[in-house]
Amino acid sequence: MSEEFLSHCRHIVGEPFVLVTAADMAPFLDDWRGRYTGKALAVLRPADTGQVAQLVKACAHWRVPLVPQGGRTGLVLGSVPDDSGTAVVLSLSRMNRVRSIDAVNRTMTVDAGCILQQVQDAAALHDCLYPLSLASEGSCTVGGNLSTNAGGTAVLRYGNARELCLGLEVVTPQGEVWSGLRGLRKDNTGYDLRDLFIGAEGTLGVITGAVLKLYPLPKATATALVALATPRDALDLLTLAQDRCGACLTAFELMSDVCLGLVATHFPDLPKPFSRPHGQYVLLELSSCESGEHASGMLEQAVAVALDRGVARDAVVAMSAAQSRGLWDLREHISMAQAKAGKNIKHDISLPISRVARFIATTDALLERTFPGCLIVAFGHLGDGNLHYNVAPPAGVPHDAFLQFEPAVNRVVYEQVHAFGGSISAEHGIGALKRDELSRYKSPVELGMMRAIKAALDPLDIMNPGKVL
Fold it and tell me: What are the distances in angstroms from CA 375 to CA 35, 163, 437?
C-alpha cells in the first residue's frame, strides 16, 4: 500500500519532492527545542494549492495521516509526527509567494509558506506595516502563525494573528479547496469558517493561503526601559502608559531581574542600562504616525510621571535607533540565555492582566516551598496578559535530573493559572505536549463541541492526529 501511495505522490509533486530517506527527512522530524524526534513515512513538498489538494485526497483514499508543517518553530510538538512512522509530513516551505498587495485596501495575499519576515519586508516596500512580530520571524511561516494564532510583542496594539487575517484558503480533509481569500472587513454571511481554522493547529484542514491586514507604516517609534520594584508596579505603569499614550502604546514587555541577569551572564556584550539591579523591568515602545518628536515627547512625559509618582525607580529612554535596538536585544535574548544556561520547564500562560502580579507572588511562593531554590524566569507580554513563566533547577542540581519533576511543576503552575482564571496556552498552542492537560481545564461542554467539529470536518482523523484532542 505504501509504495502505491508514494508512487501516486511522486506523480503529483515530482520525485525530488517526495523525501523518504532518513537523511532527507531528518530536518523535518525534530522539534524546535531538540527534545523530540518523530518518524514519518515520507515528507511531501507541494508547490501550490492544487498539489496540496491532490496529496490530501490521496491521504484520504489510502487512510494515511498527515502533519502540516510550516517553519517548524512551534514549542508544543504540533508540527512534528509521532514515533509510529505511519504519517506523512506535508511541508509547505515551497509555497512562499507573495501573491498580491493592495495598498489602498491595506491587504496582502500570500502563500502559507511565506516566512513572516518576508511578509514584513514586502509590506514595508509599499509603506505598509504587517505588525505581527515574533522572535522566530526569520523562520516561522504565515501558515504556522495562523494555525497557532500566534501573538508576539505587538498584540497590545494590533491583536493576535487572528485579528490580522481577513481571509483564508484551506484544503479540507477531503481534498477540496475552500477559497475564502476575501479582503473584507465586514462579511456577515453566516458562520465564520475562517475562525475555525485559525488556531486549530492543522487538525481541521491545511491553510494554503491568507489575506493579511496591513497598517500605515509608523513615522517613528520611541523606546524606554523602566526599572521597577514589583510586578504590581508594572501594572500601575501599564495603566499610566495607556491613559497617557492611548493607541500609540505598541509594546509593554515585563522582565524580571533574573531574566536580565541571565542575559548579562551569557551575552556580556549587550547593554547594561542600570548601575544597580531592580526587581522588575518593563520595556515599552510607542509608535506614532505623526513624527519622532511626537512619540519621544509622549514617552518621556509618561516616564517622568511614573518616576515622580514612585511607580518607577529608574528609566532609560533610547535616543537613537541603535539604542532602541540594544534595549530590544535584552528582551529578545532571554530565551537564548535560558538555553545557554541549560534546560528548564517552560510555561506559556495567559491571565487577566489585573491578576498577573498576584499570580506571580502566589505561584513563586508555592514553587519555592515545593522545590526549594528553584529559579523562576518570568517574562512576557504584560500588555495582553501573556506570561512566559519558566522554572529552572536550583543551583547545583543537574538540569536533566530536575526535568523529572516537570509533571509536578506543571501541576503547581497550571492549577494556579486555573485558579486565577487564566489559560495554560497563550500563544504556543496545545499540540501533543499539552493535549492531556487540556482535558483537565476545558469543560466537558467545550471539549464536546471541539470533538464534534473535528468529527464533522475530519471523520477519518487524518489531519494532524493526536494533536490538540
Answer: 21, 35, 23
The C-alpha cell at 383 is: 500588555
- Average pLDDT of every residue of the chain: 95
User: Is 86:109 a contact under the CB 8 Å cutoff?
Assistant: no
Which 8-state DSSP code applies to residue 28?
A: G
d(CA 379, CA 334): 9
Residue 225 host element (H or E): strand 220-228
Task: Indicate the helix (H) or strand (E) that contains 108.
Answer: strand 107-111
The total of other beta-carbon atoms located within 10 Å of residue 405's CB is 17
Q: List 349's β-bridge partners, or say none.
A: 387
* Calpha distance 284→154 (Å, rounded): 11
Q: How far apart are CA 432 and CA 435, in angstroms?
A: 5
d(CA 160, CA 142): 12
Q: What is the pTM of this model?
A: 0.93
* Backbone φ, ψ for residue 55 (5° rounding): -65, -40
Residue 198 near residue 146, CB atoms below 8 Å: yes
Cα separation, 92 vs 48, in Å, equals 9
- Over the stretch 255-311, which tens digit does the pLDDT of each residue have? 999 999 999 999 999 999 999 999 999 999 999 888 878 889 999 999 999 999 999
Tell me the pLDDT tens digit for each residue of 14-58: 999 999 999 999 999 998 877 789 999 999 999 999 999 999 999
**Amino acid residing at 83:** D
One-letter amino acid at 41 equals L
Angle between helices 292-308 and 231-245 (to 10 degrees): 140
CA angle 390, 332, 348 (to 5 degrees): 30
CA distances from 137 to 28, 129, 328 (A): 18, 14, 15
If you count DSSP H runs as helices and E runs as strands, how many of each does the chain have, helices first? 17, 18
pLDDT tens digit string along 321-356? 999 999 999 999 999 999 899 989 999 999 999 999
The whole-angstrom separation of Cα 413 and Cα 342 is 20
Tell me the backbone φ, ψ of residue 210, rounded to 5 degrees: -155, 150
- Angle (CA) 97-45-180 rounded to 5° is 50
